[in-house]
C-alpha cells in the first residue's frame, strides 16, 4: 500500500517571499511522484513530476521539487511567490497495487499569498 | 481538444434522490477514475476503470455505481443520496501507465439536503 502525508494543511506567505510545501510518502515499491495545483473553483492541473534521473525537478510557474529517496520526501519550493500562487497544492504518488496504476493523493496544502 | 468534461458543475439533491454525474474524455485514455474531495482529506478514490467494460472499487465506493460502456464515457451514479455525499466530485483520465499524469475535469459541487 502507498500513502502520502502533506505536513502542513495551510501555509500563509507574503508576496515575493519563498515557500516550501512538505510531502512525505510511504511505499514498499518504487513510485512516481507528482505535484498538482488547484486554483479556486477549478480542477487539478499538473505542476511537475518526478519519474527518474535528476532528483531536482523543475515545473511550471517557477516551482521546483526535490526527491529524497532516503527520507521518502518530495518537497515543493518556489523562491518568490506571487498573489496568483494562492491555491491548494496536492502531492501524489503513483505505483502498482491492487487498484491498478493507482494515484494516491495527500490531504492538500492551502497556500495563501498576502500582499 | 476538450480534455475531460464533467456535467453538471453544481447540483442540489434531496436525501434519497438519485442522479448521475457525467464524465467524458476525448484523449483515448484507458484509465478513468472518480474522486471526491472533502476539506483536509485530499482526493479519495471512489471507483475506477482500466478500460471499456472493466470497473472496480476504490477507497470509498459505498453509495455509488459506475459503468464503462465506451472508452470515452464514465458516469457516476448516486443511488440514494445522503448528506454525507455532499462533496466536490472530480473525474480524471490518464493513460494506463504509472508514469503518466492524470487529467482532471472541472468538478461537480454536489449538495445533499
Structural features, described:
The complex is a heterodimer of chains A (115) and B (113). In chain A, 0% of the residues lie in helices and 55% in strands. In chain A, strand 5 and strand 6 (44-50) form a beta hairpin. In chain A, the strands form three sheets. In chain A, strands 2, 5, 6, 10, 11 and 12 form a six-stranded mixed beta sheet that branches. Chain A is mainly β and 115 residues long. Chain A has strands spanning 3-6, 10-14, 19-21, 23-26, 32-38, 44-50, 56-58, 64-68, 73-78, 87-95, 102-105, 109-114. Chain B is built from no helices and eleven strands. Chain B is globular.
Q: How would you summarize this macromolecular structure in one to three sentences?
A:
The complex is a heterodimer of chains A (115) and B (113). In chain A, 0% of the residues lie in helices and 55% in strands. Chain A has 115 residues and is an all-beta fold.
What global shape of chain A is seen? globular
Biggest sheet architecture of chain A: 6 strands, mixed
The total count of helices of chain A amounts to 0
The number of helical elements of chain B comes to: 0
SSE pattern of chain A:
EEEEEEEEEEEE
Q: What fraction of residues of chain A sit in β-strands?
A: over 45%
Shape of chain B: globular
Which key features would you list for this structure?
heterodimer; A: 115 residues; B: 113 residues; mainly beta; seven-stranded mixed beta sheet; four-stranded antiparallel beta sheet; 11 strands; globular
Question: What secondary-structure arrangement, pairings included, does this model have?
Answer:
The complex is a heterodimer of chains A (115) and B (113).
Chain A: E1 3-6, E2 10-14, E3 19-21, E4 23-26, E5 32-38, E6 44-50, E7 56-58, E8 64-68, E9 73-78, E10 87-95, E11 102-105, E12 109-114
Parallel strand pairs in A: 2-12
Antiparallel strand pairs in A: 1-4, 3-9, 5-6, 5-10, 7-8, 8-9, 10-11, 10-12
Chain B: E1 4-7, E2 10-13, E3 19-25, E4 31-37, E5 43-51, E6 54-57, E7 64-66, E8 76-78, E9 87-94, E10 103-104, E11 108-112
Parallel strand pairs in B: 2-11
Antiparallel strand pairs in B: 1-3, 3-8, 4-5, 4-9, 5-6, 7-8, 9-10, 9-11
Amino acid at each position: 500500500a502507498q500513502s502520502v502525508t502533506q505536513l502542513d494543511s495551510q501555509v500563509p506567505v507574503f508576496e515575493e517571499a519563498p515557500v516550501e510545501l512538505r510531502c512525505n510518502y510511504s511505499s514498499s515499491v518504487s513510485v512516481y511522484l507528482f505535484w498538482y495545483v488547484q486554483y479556486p473553483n477549478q480542477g487539478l492541473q499538473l505542476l511537475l513530476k518526478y519519474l527518474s534521473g535528476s532528483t531536482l525537478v523543475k515545473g511550471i510557474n517557477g516551482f521546483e521539487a526535490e526527491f529524497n529517496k532516503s527520507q521518502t520526501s518530495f518537497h515543493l519550493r518556489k523562491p518568490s511567490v506571487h498573489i496568483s500562487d494562492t491555491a491548494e497544492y496536492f502531492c501524489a504518488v503513483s505505483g502498482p497495487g491492487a487498484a491498478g496504476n493507482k494515484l494516491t493523493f495527500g490531504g492538500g496544502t492551502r497556500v495563501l499569498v498576502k500582499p | 481538444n476538450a480534455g475531460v468534461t464533467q456535467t453538471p458543475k453544481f447540483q442540489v439533491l434531496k436525501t434519497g434522490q438519485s442522479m448521475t454525474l457525467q464524465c467524458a474524455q476525448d484523449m483515448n485514455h484507458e484509465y478513468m477514475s472518480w474522486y471526491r474531495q472533502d476539506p483536509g482529506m485530499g482526493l479519495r478514490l471512489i471507483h475506477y476503470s482500466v478500460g471499456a467494460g472493466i470497473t472496480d472499487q476504490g477507497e470509498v465506493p459505498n453509495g455509488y455505481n459506475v459503468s464503462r460502456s465506451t472508452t470515452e464515457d464514465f458516469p457516476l451514479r448516486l443511488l440514494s443520496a445522503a448528506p454525507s455525499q455532499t462533496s466536490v466530485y472530480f473525474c480524471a483520465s490518464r493513460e494506463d501507465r504509472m508514469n503518466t499524469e492524470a487529467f482532471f475535469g472541472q468538478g461537480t459541487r454536489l449538495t445533499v439536503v
